[in-house]
Each structure stands twice: as C-alpha cells, then as structure tokens.
Specification:
With 301 residues, the protein is of the alpha+beta class. The protein folds into 2 domains: 7-193, 2,3-Dihydroxybiphenyl 1,2-Dioxygenase, domain 1; 203-299, Immunoglobulin-like. It has 8 helices and 16 strands. It has helices at residues 18-29, 38-42, 65-70, 73-81, 95-103, 157-160, 218-229, 296-299; strands at 7-14, 33-35, 46-53, 56-63, 84-91, 111-120, 131-134, 147-155, 163-170, 203-212, 234-235, 242-244, 250-254, 263-271, 281-284, 287-292. It has a 9-stranded mixed beta sheet with strand order 2-3-4-1-5-9-8-6-7. A hairpin with a 2-residue loop joins strand 3 and strand 4. Helix 5 (95-103) packs antiparallel against helix 7 (218-229). It is globular, with a radius of gyration of 18 Å. The mean pLDDT is 95.
C-alpha cells in the first residue's frame, strides 16, 4: 500500500534568465511566484523563484554573474544543454529512514548536500528567527511544539537520473488536497492564500515527471528510486519503468533520445476539473508540459 505522504512535491528548473522564465511559467500555468529565497541569493551564485501549483511547487534557479565568472556546476550545465529540468523533489514520511536508503543506491555516492531548518511559530507565520544547519545522514527531523521544521537531502544524478531530493517537513505535510502545512523550500507564508485560491485555472499540481537517465537503464533507475524511497511506493510489473506514488502520481524513466537531453524532460500536470483546458502540451525551459485528466485520487480529500 502506497504511503499517502509519498508525493512528488516540487520540480526545479535551471534557466539563464530567471525573470523571463518565471513570468512565462506564471502566465502559462496561471500561478504566481510565492517565494524568492533570500538565503540562496545571499550565497552569491544562485537566485530563485517558487511558483505554487495547488499543493506543489515549481522552482526556477538561475546562476548569478559571479557564478558565470567562477564556472559553477549550474553554468556548465547550461552551456551544455541550455535551459533544462534540474531536479525532482519527493516528500517522504521519515527522512531519517529514506536518507539512509537513498544514499546506498547505485554507486552509493551518498548525500550531495542537505540542510535542516527550524523556525519558531506555525505554518504560515513566516521565517523570523529561523535556524539552519547541515544535515547529517540518518538524523531525524526535529519536531518541537511551537516550531515548524524541515529537512532537504539531495543525491547525485548519476544514481537517480536527475538531481534527486527528498523532503520531510513538520507539521501538516500529510494533509491533501489544499495542504497548508509546513514546506520550507517555498518559505513559510505561501499557506495563507491556499483557501482563497487553492490553484489557478490551468492545473491543480503534478501528475507525473519523466526522467531521461544518462547512467543505468530506465528500469534500473526506477528500482533505485523505489528502493531508496521505500515507504510503500510501488512498480507495476506491466510498466517496470514507472514508479507509483501517492495521489495517482508517477515517475517515468526513459532512455535519452539525445546525450544533451537528460534529467527531467517532461512533466504531466493535473487539469482543473470542469475547467476549459488552456493547452494540451507546451515546451518551456527545455521541459515538455502536458495537461492530463485528473485521477480520482488526486482530487478527493
């Protein structure tokens, strides 16, 4: 049985022009930018935006002039591929367990990076007083009354077909749809308009992500995700390259058609029930976005 917490919660894109790309995405998906991470910008090499799609988030990151001068991982990737899909982020019920099992998949590279965040207050109360630090493999998420907390852990693309991240946030990350619990990557104020506007007129969130894996065949990479995430995700024997998550979501793994087109290459989006479909598919930022009919499990409380 699939764990209801185990969801594709965020897709991250990499683009040369952050403002132009974010405006195009906001217009195409009828969804506003809800957060720009000041701590990322303060690092000097990356800036970002987060767009809310129902309960999920679409992040775009862009290198700064300093990053281009230093030739970072992100600038080299842009030089090779142009604007592209960069990362898939899955929410897990227990980051202590999932971080250990993800770390030993494939080459066993382990953690690429990871951080914890703890902030006094409640979901929606902002980030005043937030504290953070480097995550240590196998640590549990702190859950102290009167605070909100979150952990993110990233793993190498060679093992998972794209840069992979797992997330656990507290409290309230298990409530769907119309989630208003903690989710630190998008800040801590996005929750305040969910009831007034649960989603825009185009999509209610992610249905599926398609990942072209450079190393390892599609079925092998799919098994690595399943073994790493655990927590009740499943592979249908009739579709050995497709991982089933909660809410009818899936992750599909395919063979790259071109050597410079790997990682996240496609995303399916749930259509808004009863609304006129604005488009069937569109290519933005090196990713094909397709609107699909909602599954019953994606719309029921």
């Amino acid at each position: 049985m699939i764990d209801p917490v185990l969801r594709l919660r965020q897709i991250c894109l990499l683009a040369r022009d952050l403002e132009w790309t974010s405006r195009v995405l906001s217009t195409a998906f009828d969804a506003p930018v809800v957060f720009r991470d000041p701590r990322m910008a303060a690092g000097g090499t990356l800036t970002n935006t987060h767009i809310r799609l129902g309960d999920s988030f679409l992040e775009t990151v862009s290198p700064s002039d300093l990053a281009w001068a230093r030739s970072t991982t992100q600038t080299r990737l842009l030089e090779r591929t142009g604007d592209c899909g960069y990362m898939a982020i899955v929410q897990v019920p227990d980051v202590a367990v999932a971080s250990r099992s993800m770390a030993i998949q494939g080459s066993g590279t382990g953690i690429v990076s990871g951080d914890w965040n703890v902030c006094p207050g409640a979901a929606g109360s902002g980030l005043a007083g937030v504290e953070s630090g480097r995550y240590v493999l196998g640590e549990a998420l702190p859950k102290t009354p009167g605070t909100v907390s979150g952990v993110n852990v990233q793993f190498h693309p060679r093992d998972f077909g794209t840069l992979a991240e797992i997330q656990e946030n507290w409290p309230g990350h298990d409530e769907f749809p119309r989630n208003t619990g903690a989710y630190f990557p998008a800040g801590n104020t996005w929750q305040n308009d969910v009831e007034a506007r649960p989603h825009g007129g185009v999509t209610t969130g992610f249905a599926s992500v398609e990942i072209a894996a450079r190393d390892g065949g599609p079925e092998e990479v799919c098994r690595r995700w399943m073994n790493g995430l655990g927590a009740g995700c499943a592979i249908d024997p009739s579709r050995p390259n497709t991982l089933q998550l909660a809410g009818g979501q899936t992750m599909r793994f395919v063979t790259p058609e071109r050597s410079d087109r790997t990682g996240v290459i496609g995303v399916d989006l749930w259509a808004v029930p009863g609304a006129h479909k604005k488009f069937d598919s569109v290519d933005i930022c090196g990713v094909k976005w397709t609107i699909v009919d909602p599954a019953e499990s994606a719309t029921s409380p």
